[in-house]
Specification:
By secondary structure, the protein is of the alpha/beta class. The chain has three helices and four strands, in the order βαβαββα. The chain has one domain: Rossmann fold. It is 30% helix and 18% strand. The protein has a four-stranded mixed β-sheet with strand order 1-2-3-4. The longest helix is centred in the N-terminal third of the chain and has 14 residues. The C terminus is likely disordered.
């Protein structure tokens, strides 16, 4: 991942668990954002990506009949004060001015 400078990728929790273990050992993470879907994302894995590596995690849900995406969700700010002028998504400035 670091050789190619990957900043965005998507996969199922099993794949991300392996990559999270790799990132912890290599102490290198070029990701900025990831989509995790296919099954529930373990909260500890989500927190580790976000808190330890600053990777925005988007949790996706869908079904084959929905082609395949049904909904996306991210973690909201703990309070309106914490969000301030920033977008709810961590680390992204609001485009509204």
């Amino acid at each position: 991942m670091e050789a190619e400078g990957v900043t965005f990728s998507a996969g199922v929790p099993t794949v991300w668990l392996g990559l999270l273990n790799y990132v912890k050992q290599a102490d290198v993470c070029t990701l900025k954002r990831t989509v995790i879907g296919g099954s529930a994302c373990p909260p500890a894995m989500l927190r580790s990506f976000e808190d330890d590596y600053g990777v925005e995690v988007i949790h996706a849900w869908g079904m084959t009949e929905m082609s395949p995406l049904g909904t996306l969700a991210g973690r909201a700010a703990a309070s309106a004060q914490e969000a301030g002028p920033r977008d709810i998504r961590r680390g992204h400035e609001s485009r509204r001015r």
